[in-house]
């Protein structure tokens, strides 16, 4: 790739990934090389470019980008083909390299209050179109894929996905939960979609710490209760016996119940099971409250990292953009940690985009400026019409990609 004496901010950020990849077979006689394509798609992900034609047009009008990539122009059709052709393993390797660098910073983080580092597990669906998304069929009205995520929360402002499993939406959350649990250093947090007593028993035996929400009607035999005086919203702290449905084995966990008032002013009762007896009931309730961080993460990915809009709906081209969004998120988080700005990732991303084509003199001067409060107002949700129905009969598709 080209060698320019003066660097722009965006070029420095992308160069930080050290992506200079060429495939002897895939790139033979190809105008668009694999490394060039990755940088093009990653810049488009950061800038939320909606279509492949937008990516091609931006390259045509951006001289520094052309010089750096040594690529004067490219067509949307060529980008379409290349997105299908790049191996997913390459994106996974880039993401893992970034996360390892992030994990080095997270080791020094104190965790959340007194509960330590959390690993919050949940999934998010990405809808596919009615016709071209039939390979990921779920029901007559839905085609979708899932991004199952283990989100590491190292502090109140430091969260990053540590492991991701992709699947079609017909795959249940319980099927891939254990694939996301790799380390004993975290306390894993689950919602009601992961209720599986056999897994709870196995985790308790192997020392994997967890806090998992159960349903209001889930049966637990109370063995011993503790006083909850002075623990505000906590209404129950007890040791309970759980019966594993298949083997009928009985094992013991801790049950904590607490209440909170939701946004609709309704009083909600939360019941969680855990194998952490070393914390107070209030601390256990706080752990589950932090589960909301993964909802904010999914919202950020879809709103700021272009995850909601896929450029290509073929199977080989759906998984790659998901990892591109993960790489973009991880890169912004690594920049935030390395520059020690104290700002949020979203704020840093906005400054990165506003200074993208400016010369880089100093990281902090270029990327961190005085924050100003702006508001674009609330966006109204568009009304959706009735989903189109098809007479064909399909079976739900089960794909899992680790």
Automatic annotation (TrEMBL):
Top-level taxon in the UniProt lineage: Bacteria
InterPro entries: RNaseH-like_sf (IPR012337), Transpos_IS4 (IPR047952), Transposase_11 (IPR002559)
Signal peptide (from-to): none
Any Pfam family: DDE_Tnp_1
Domain Transposase IS4-like, first and last residues per copy: 119-330
Transmembrane helix in keyword set: no
Entry coiled-coil feature ranges: none
Keyword Cytoplasm: no
Alphabetic keyword roster: DNA recombination, DNA-binding, Transposition
Assigned protein family: Belongs to the transposase 11 family.
Protein name: IS4 family transposase
């Amino acid at each position: 790739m080209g060698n320019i004496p003066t660097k722009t901010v965006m070029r420095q950020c992308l160069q930080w990934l050290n992506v200079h990849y060429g495939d002897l077979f895939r790139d033979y006689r190809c105008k668009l090389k694999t490394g060039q394509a990755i940088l093009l798609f990653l810049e488009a992900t950061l800038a939320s470019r909606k279509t492949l034609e937008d990516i091609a047009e931006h390259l045509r009008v951006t001289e520094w980008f052309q010089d750096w990539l040594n690529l004067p122009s490219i067509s949307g059709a060529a980008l379409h083909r290349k997105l299908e052709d790049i191996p997913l393993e390459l994106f996974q390797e880039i993401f893992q390299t970034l996360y390892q660098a992030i994990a080095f910073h997270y080791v020094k983080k104190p965790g959340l209050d007194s509960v330590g580092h959390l690993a919050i597990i949940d999934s998010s669906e990405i809808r596919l179109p009615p016709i071209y998304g039939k390979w990921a069929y779920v029901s007559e009205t839905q085609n979708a894929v899932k991004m199952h995520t283990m989100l590491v929360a190292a502090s109140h402002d430091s969260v990053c996905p540590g492991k991701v499993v992709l699947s079609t939406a017909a795959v249940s959350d319980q099927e891939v939960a254990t694939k996301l649990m790799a380390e004993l250093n975290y306390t894993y947090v689950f919602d009601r979609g992961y209720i599986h007593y056999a897994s709870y028993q196995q985790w308790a035996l192997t020392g994997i710490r967890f806090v998992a929400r159960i349903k209001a009607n889930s049966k637990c035999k109370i063995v011993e209760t503790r006083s909850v005086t002075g623990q505000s919203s906590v209404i129950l702290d007890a040791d309970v016996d759980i019966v594993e449905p298949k083997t009928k084995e009985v094992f013991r966990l801790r049950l904590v119940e607490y209440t909170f008032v939701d946004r609709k002013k309704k009083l909600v009762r939360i019941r969680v099971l855990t194998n952490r007896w070393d914390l107070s009931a209030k601390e256990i309730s706080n752990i589950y409250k932090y589960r909301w961080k993964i909802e904010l993460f999914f919202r950020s990915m879809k709103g700021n990292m272009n995850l909601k809009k896929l450029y290509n709906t073929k199977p080989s081209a759906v998984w790659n953009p998901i990892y591109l969004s993960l790489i973009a998120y991880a890169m912004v988080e690594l920049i935030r940690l390395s520059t020690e700005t104290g700002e949020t990732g979203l704020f840093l991303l906005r400054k990165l985009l506003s200074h993208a084509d400016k010369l880089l003199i100093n990281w902090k001067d270029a990327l961190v400026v005085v924050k100003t409060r702006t508001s674009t107002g609330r966006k109204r949700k568009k009304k959706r019409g009735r989903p189109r129905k098809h007479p064909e009969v399909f079976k739900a598709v089960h794909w899992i990609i680790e």
